[in-house]
Amino acid sequence: MFTRNHLFLLLTLNLFSFSLFGQVSGVNPQLIMYRHNSTPTSPAPVVTGNVLGTLKWNGLTAPNAIRTGATIRSIVEGPVSPGFLQGNMIFSTSGAIGLSDRMVITSTGLVGIGTMDPLYHLHVNGNTHTSGRFYGRIHFDNNQPTDLPNTYNDEAYFERKTRAILGLSANTYAEGGILTLAPTGLALDRQIFSGGTDGLWTRSQDAGGANTWAAWEKLLTSGDINGNVGRVARFTGANPGDPSSTLGNSQLFDDGTRVGIGTLTPDAAYLVTLGGDTRINGNTRTTGNANVDGNATVTGNATINGTSRLVGKVAIGADPVPTVGSHALYVGGSAIAEEVVVKLKVNWPDYVFSANHCLPSLQEVASYIAVEKHLPGVPSANEIAQFGLAVGDMQKIQMEKIEELYLHLIELEKSMNELKSENQSLKNRLEQIERR
Fold it and tell me: Which contiguous run of DSSP H or E holds residue 372?
């Protein structure tokens, strides 16, 4: 039986076969594809999975060979009920293996590129590139137990700001970009600002969580951190007691093997090299040999359990070091020692006992004392006050005087013995005279 439905189908086929280059026009031009499921008696509704229609772009690739280059089709996505239909739109292009689905717009408005199951308004499976401006926000997953984000509560904002609005110091370049990271939960927002010629700045939301911010802090950059290889860095503020955010060279040098203080070329034979005068205000203990080739000032106790070799002047309790004389040791106070050995460079005064020694007479010594007020060959009180007392020389002088005194005593004893002998002889003669 030829029914009304058969007639409608025939008219539709004639319409599409009338011309391959048809044109729709009018006040409200439309191109409609109508899908239904036929039954023996009447059209039936579409069901999930039905293709509602397909637009194809075909091309002749060889005689009697036609290939489809691209299609746009719509498929029913969900259950159908009177007055309710869910349909998507799928875009496909042809490659070496034929048609492949490239993009989908779901019935709920989600767009998928490279995936046919988008989870977001725009879901891209692959790399993206934007040559123009991007407006909007970036959202972060709120620590979900799976790898599929499902919240838009955590966000990041990119904005252009002026330095004046942010409370930063003036700069030739007054504007810059600010990134605000705004996680939710037990977290504080943080901002990073880039602009001007002074690098990056950062600040954090106040600990109370209010909409106020802590002061800006500058992130150190290569322009703030300068120094030589091996030189230990230090903060270089305007005043020693003020906080500083810039670094520079210190007086310490460490190449990983040797350490130098006040020198960039530490001696390879030693672990630590001091390139200048050194002062130690405390106890110092050296368990090995100590070689001091320059000035050393110790204001505390020094215990040396080894051999110490000092090249130069040594002052103990004398500040400043006396410049009078060329002495190696200066002591500004008393010294206690169990034994002191003085090695003189000149002969010990045993020459007094030689036959060539001219022993001054006591009369000559008395005459000299009467004029000079001190023994001959002995420094005067003025000389001692001016130049000090040379212990070694004084011991030599004293020994010379002692030896001369012994010579005088020997001569005196000889004279006394002669007198005693003469006296005894006279006494004997007197007794003989008296007996007569």
Answer: helix 362-372
β-pair partners for 123: 112
Query: Could you say which DSSP state residue 129 is in?
Result: -
Query: pLDDT by residue (tens digit) across 72-101?
Result: 999 999 999 999 999 999 999 999 889 999
Tell me: the pLDDT tens digits for 372-401? 898 998 999 998 888 888 778 888 888 888
Assign 132 to helix, strand or coil.
Answer: coil
- What is the pTM (predicted TM-score) of this model? 0.44
Contact criterion met (CB below 8 Å) for 307 and 295: no
Residue type, 342: V
The secondary element (H helix, E strand) that includes residue 111 is: strand 111-113
Do the beta carbons of residue 232 and residue 223 sit within 8 Å? Answer: no
Please give the structure tokens belonging to residue 174.
């007054």
Instruction: Dig out the tokens for 112 from the structure.
Output: 């998928």
Mean pLDDT of the chain: 83
Under a CB-based contact definition with an 8 Å cutoff, are residues 191 and 178 in contact?
yes
Using DSSP's 3-state secondary structure scheme, residue 92 falls into strand
- Least confident range of 124-138, 315-329, 353-367: 315-329
Cβ–Cβ under 8 Å, residues 123 and 111: yes
pLDDT at 35 over 90: yes
Instruction: Measure the CA–CA gap between 289 and 308, rounded to whole angstroms.
Output: 6
* Radius of gyration, CA atoms only, the chain: 57
Neighbour tally for 336: CB within 10 Å: 4
- Cα dist from 104 to 54, 74, 118, 121, whole Å: 14, 9, 8, 11
DSSP letter for 54, please: E
SS3 91: strand
Spell out a b/e string for 262-290, using b for 16 or more CB atoms within 10 Å of the CB, else e.
eeeebeeeeeebbbeeeeeeeeeeeeeee
β partners of residue 156: 138, 181
Residue 349 DSSP one-character state: G
**Domain residue spans in the chain?**
1-15+30-125, 277-336, 349-435
Q: How far is CA 190 from CA 49, 134, 267, in A?
A: 49, 21, 49
Closest CA to 229 of 264, 271, 263, 270: 264
The DSSP annotation for 184-234 comes to -SS---EEEEE-SSS-EEEEEB-TT-SS-BPPPEEPP-TTTB---TTEEEE
Asked whether the beta carbons of 173 and 193 are under 8 A apart, the reply is no
User: Measured between alpha carbons, how far is 219 from 195 in angstroms, rounded to an integer?
Assistant: 13
Cβ atoms of 104 and 135 closer than 8 Å = no
